[in-house]
């Protein structure tokens, strides 16, 4: 219940109307809305949402029945209140105490959309309020039994009125998240054939969530050690930071041995990207971030929220359902010198289309020529190909060239630590001194944002990577997960090829990598997938093969073929 303050203002001689002013009154008090007390009609001010006007022309003698026609206010100069109160310059409007008390005991609970002529008085005014300014007795004097305002009250009565209007009325409903909203719609569907191919989370062949065996062992190890839950430093767990940097660049990399990388633990990929975005906004003012078209749905949100300008470079070619490499190179060349180029380290999301090693070399050439700064998002290391080293090849190529780079990491996919929010931001610098200063500023950004990161996921990663036996088991499990997705991809291709008699070439599915496949379906076709076939996916045509099993591939192929050929 919102608390506001009404002031009855007794105006000077030339006043044409009297206002009830509020300290913090916002819509729904609009000009078209009439509020009623049991005695007095109140018209909302024509040009203000922060005041309510009492027009003299609306005041009739019946509203002041306790007053005599010619009675003059004691202590106030001016004329008497006329019987009809029709004068355009009503000098002194004298409210009887009974009316003040009635108004003071009213709670205004009107909606802006309510029709003025259709609102019953009982619906608009009801409830309780209280006089909030001084002693009630000191506000009025009596003359011959009739109450009048006391001139010593300075012409003002203040009432605290409880209003059934939220201060958050101006806040609109946000649209559902385009990715996470898919799961909400899926849960509401009772069809037994439904498939959730929207959110990128790994499922078993039985389509159940999967907790890696190596994660369970790492957690048991933590319990055996009796580790505490004390706060981590702002930069996170030291053992994790060391492990994640070595995993990314290679333990023998010069950026590690020369201490040229600033690494701090972040809140998975999203949080790590956000830390970097704030660093860009503060220390590279005006610099633009180039983002692939299309890209992961949250990239633009992150940079928008950090007030970092961005533009898109061509990446996906709908004609070939492949990489528009020439367009990509042209756009990177055309960007202002010193721009940040956001690159997907492996398993591009949402297309699943990665540059070849030769194309990565060309991309690095152009970025160096333009003095751009590469910014990698590495969310699937080891999960795309099944090899940690192979999936980090693009990042290591740029680092080996001596380039200063940003790299955001996530362990949501490759270790299945979705809810642990564990990741890191790495900034490779030209010297160890520069890296130390960059790290200090990353910590400064993190401190007011979330203070320090969570410890549980960081310990899991540190234990797995730091223990040779667990590390070997993890690599085997990653190969298993990546292998299952590759098997599903092959089965889907086989089903499409055998069922589709149109001769369409579906081989692009096999050329893609990682947990996603970009089907080439448009929004209308994707809607058909959901509405007719109960296949839930993002509207850009992306499907998560991690949420598919071999048994459902033929059903999915039927849905894709129908949507592609029969829906325009």
TrEMBL record:
It comes from the Eukaryota. One of its GO terms (biological process) is amino acid metabolic process. The keyword Repeat does not apply. Residues 193-560 form the Aminotransferase class I/classII large domain. Keywords: Aminotransferase, Pyridoxal phosphate, Transferase. CDD domains: AAT_like. Signal peptide: none annotated. Its cofactor is pyridoxal 5'-phosphate. Its EC number is 2.6.1.1. GO terms for molecular function: L-aspartate:2-oxoglutarate aminotransferase activity; pyridoxal phosphate binding. The keyword Transferase applies. It catalyses: L-aspartate + 2-oxoglutarate = oxaloacetate + L-glutamate. SUPFAM superfamilies: PLP-dependent transferases (SSF53383). Belongs to the class-I pyridoxal-phosphate-dependent aminotransferase family. Important for the metabolism of amino acids and Krebs-cycle related organic acids. In plants, it is involved in nitrogen metabolism and in aspects of carbon and energy metabolism. Homodimer. This is aspartate transaminase. It comes from Linum tenue. The lineage of its organism: Eukaryota, Viridiplantae, Streptophyta, Embryophyta, Tracheophyta.
